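TEACHING EXERCISE
Course module: macromolecular assemblies
Task: Read the component lines below, then compare them to the predicted structure of the full complex.
Student: A.B.
Group: 4
Components provided:
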Amino acid sequence: MKNLKGLVVIATLSFTSLSFAGDALNAEEMLIDAEEANAAAAAIGFEWRDTSKFISEARIALADGKQEEAYQLAQRGYDQAVLAKKQGELMMENWEKYIPM
Amino acid sequence: MLTTKIKLTLSLVAATSLLAGCTSSNSDESADYQALVQQDISTFQTFFKNRFPDVEIEDYKNGVYAIDENARLQWEDIEEFPPYELEVDDGKVLYETPFANGKSYADCFGDGAVRKQYPQFDDKRGEVVTLELAINECREANGEKPLKYKKGNIAKLSAYMAFQSRGQIVAARVSSEGAYNAYMGGKEFFYSKRGQMNLSCADCHMRATGYYLRADVPSPAIGHVTHFPVHRSKWGQLGTLHRRYGGCNQNIRAKAFKPQSEEYRNLEFFQTVMSNGLEFNGPGSRK
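Instructor-supplied answer key:
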């Protein structure tokens, strides 16, 4: 019974997020997410080379009113930043396993 | 008779160990860190002995030319008229030119043959001090502006100082907790994969050393620090070690750190410890 309740909650949650996903995240919000994600990667020393370039290009596109282009660029930056942070976390835990013998 | 003898020996042993304990209570700690580090050095150097059984450890000061015979012949030709010669001369002039306050680098570094003192861990400040950092601190202490860290005058000055120091032996010491932490920071950096290509320094300069990666053979990591600054034909001039670090980070599509950032100073400290026992032979020339 308890489990069922939990399921309902999860289902409702994912529905709401689904119904938002289509239209909610505009280019500007994507850009903010990308910036935050990249700052998090940089904070642990694992920022990638091109991420901030995508982000600043996205900002320029947004200023020019090119929503779609801005969104694509921001998303590229965001995806890189998320991976970079994951890479950093993985390395901080496991770097000693990668010492060649 | 026997028992007294044993007793005597025992008390002698006790007395000497007590004495040893008293006099070296300070360096006891340092001995432990140095022992840990010594183990790393031997693991590291053994890796290269196994990879290149015919190469003498001392020869790793020559970078990729220690392992690539064809490239070495060309390089030896180049070294007959070293491309950094004029820059070393410029460095000497800079070194001897007085600051506005009448003092000069000699007031900080004597005759300039101080290569083997750097990088060192400064316990009071709690950080690694590299030669380039010390050069700029000497300038600032004398009312001069600091120099940019990648190329230009700082590289010429350190080239002159390296030249003055040729033949000194690398002997970086890790003798405190702070030094050990900095060393470990550099070690972690060296072995951590980074950037979009997900590669570590060790992936190229240990695993892939000796093999072609596109047009280049990555040098063995041992000896990386002995010959800097380096005149690269690609740069057309001298560049510092941290410039090279930045380039290698960019190549794997990681964001480079600033020259003389804590990250790169710790990395240099680690790499220097790994090259302990080799000879300083800078400046060098490379492709």
